Amino acid sequence: MKSHPFSEVVTDVTAKFTKIKASDYQGQGQYKIIDQGKGPVAGYTDDASLVNGQLLPVVVFGDHTRALKYVDEPIALGADGAKALRVNSDLASARYVYYYLRSVQIKDAGYSRHFKFLKEVEIPIPFKDGAPDFDDQIRIAHLLGKVEELIAQRKHHLQQLDDLLKSVFLEMFGDPVKNERQWKTQPFSRVGKFISGGTPSKSRDDYWVGKYPWVSPKDMKAPRIFDSEDHISDKVFDETSLKRIPPGHLLIVVRGMILAHSFPIAVNMVDVAINQDMKAIKLNDSLRVDYVFHCLSALKRQILKLFTTAGHGTKKFDSDVMEKLQVPVPPLDIQDDFISIADKVEVLKSRYRQSLTDLEAVYGALSQQAFKGGLDLSRVASPAASIEEEKPVAAAIPAPITTPAFELPETNLLLPALLDRTQLAPLLRFWLEAYRMQSGNVAFSVELFIVAAQTRLGELHPDNDFEWAASNYEIIKAWAFEALAAGALTQTFDDDGNRIQLRAAEQRLA
After folding, report:
1. Which helix (H) or strand (E) holds 10?
2. Contact by Cβ (8 Å): 14, 136
3. Which residue would you say has higher pLDDT here, 65 or 250?
4. What single string gives the DSSP state of each residue in 320-377?
5. Under DSSP, is residue 201 helix (H, G, I), strand (E, B) or coil?
6. Which pLDDT score, from 0 to 100, does residue 401 have?
7. DSSP summary character for residue 1
8. pLDDT above 50 (res 204)
9. If you average pLDDT over every residue of the chain, what do you get?
10. What is the pTM of this model?
11. 188-200: string of b/e by CB count within 10 Å (b at 16+)?
12. DSSP state of 407
């Protein structure tokens, strides 16, 4: 590795782009607009004169946000704060430099400009025999990209599970704002016993050395609280009025700037204490904590509108707001049915969260080692050659005869089937139909379908140990008989194999 100043590796080519004001962004169009925001695409334009496709690839840096994006297609650049950076192709791969810059901790200067800090960075470049080693650069970028894909996949799975629970909640209880099911309601101020928090004396060092999480709004980042940034000792509960809160309480934030844009809620899974900007609620016997948690999530938009304003613009969730907020109270047996489903979803979420944590740790470790030259890259496969490079070779080799590659699509039927095997039939029927539509004149094969289904399950949910049961074959058999009766499958005789085969009926255009 050889370290090079930023200016030797990267050139600021922002001036060669015509920037587009946010007011001119379109919701759709031929070209993407990339700006300094966190999202991958800010908007679209159809104006080709605003697009510079001659400098690709570029790295886009958010001067205010510190966001980094790799771009290898013609784009337009958003106004204010977006920097387009071109990498010296004689020295480094643009994707390699992009991943290295992502690994650098750039000083947070608020909404000030950050490019001045980025320009101070030195970039390590792999060298071999006195020249830049592009092969190693490409391997490093490819490896980190693959781990990044897995991280994105886990986040997508977690979002799918959240969406599933929201859908189940609305299906079972309806919209709590409209309360179409006419459940009896209760003001939020009367849903249970409210416990206030506080801050132990900062001058008592013995108060701040202990095992009990002291939860403040900054710790309310997950729906389940197992720990916090700060901890307190037993002495606090003995010598002050601060309460020890047993597991199973609903934790809410009642005051602070965070309420201007969010309403954090959580359930504590261990004994905790809370600070003065929060409340813990021991719910009445008519309400289950997980039901109320999801009910408040569904009511968030309404809650944010109800907040009152204290001094300096600080929002608060006070008794007046709590009295106005009506919470539907369905029968306990229906709440319990929902919780049974939510518990199964939480088991899956817990596994995905742990997997996500592990992958992020792996990414961090690989990144550090890679840019220090500490990885054995001989064991990392190079990305496949480009299509253009493969064309001459491919033309010289006769194409083998293969069965078609079946792509079983993603569907909302998948998560319910993973949670409850009695919901597997709709998923298999959906995939069987997709399999049939793609099979062409290839004979229908139960074995090929099972391999395709298990492969797809492994791709979409690699942490789920799906076991194939005998009853699954019965689902396939029932579908096949129905498809034959409907004319979607036909029977033919295989002379070579001396057996009857099933094939997809020809698709005729109306």
Report:
1. strand 10-12
2. no
3. 250
4. HHHHH-EEEE--HHHHHHHHHHHHHHHHHHHHHHHHHHHHHHHHHHHHHHHTTT-S-G
5. coil
6. 32
7. -
8. yes
9. 84
10. 0.67
11. bbebbebbebebb
12. -
